[in-house]
């Protein structure tokens, strides 16, 4: 074998690793049969559970590579000086670390002698889940600006928390109808593991309208920083609510001031009252 180790590296779950290849060569002048046999398995799940690959229903059964790996072919016959590539693939749907070893056994084509070990290759991989959350929970708490005076501004905040083991990248999208009066201070960035990013949303309405906090408003998109792949987090969009109004006032008297007849050189006065009857 031309390799003693195959390391698929660290991958996000549900992402297929790039195939690796190991070359097996028959250096002898006689044809030989060969087979790859799994002789060691260790899988550690994210919760710390350790598996050694033993078949609990049949403990005496030979070890098998975890289902996350593809090894093709596992056996064959090599003519004198012939080479053969063995393809190894990996894809996991759960966060875990995988350590396995494959033993290369060979024998002569006629079976005059038994199997003999001719090499061994270790196989490793690690998968992780991208985990994050929004606080407060958007499913329970909308981003409600309440009633806002036209031509003024106000702000609301929420946090994006990286609860996973590795750095994530996020991008925030916004419903088109909200873009004229809502702005986000940091629409895209990276967040290290265990850290949080506080997002400030500014509302600055320029007209009167009413948006109940029932429709999707701001969407969170999360990406794995290693592969660049988009991650399905299951986090619902943030609902946005807003009522924009002008303030109300009252003038008394309502129909103007009447000074009546005024003799030249005399002066008369009248008064009126402006009362704020609005909510601002």
| Ends distance | 80 Å
Largest sheet: 7 strands, mixed
Q: N-to-C SSE series?
A: EEEEEEEEEEEEEEEEEEEEEE
What's the pLDDT, averaged over the residues? 91
Could you say which overall geometry the principal axes of the C-alpha atoms support?
Answer: rod-shaped
Structural class by sheet pairing and helices: mainly beta
Question: Hey, roughly how much beta strand do the residues contain?
Answer: over 45%
- Poorly predicted runs: none
Total beta strand runs: 22
Percentage of residues assigned to helices: under 10%
- The Cα radius of gyration reads 35 Å
Separate helix tally: 0
Q: How do the helices and strands line up, and which of them pair or pack?
A:
Layout: E1 5-12, E2 20-25, E3 32-45, E4 50-51, E5 69-72, E6 75-78, E7 83-90, E8 96-108, E9 116-128, E10 132-135, E11 143-149, E12 154-162, E13 168-174, E14 182-184, E15 188-191, E16 196-203, E17 209-211, E18 216-224, E19 230-231, E20 238-245, E21 249-252, E22 273-276
Parallel strand pairs: 1-9, 11-20
Antiparallel strand pairs: 2-7, 3-4, 3-6, 3-8, 5-7, 8-9, 10-12, 12-16, 13-15, 13-18, 14-16, 17-20, 18-19, 18-20, 21-22
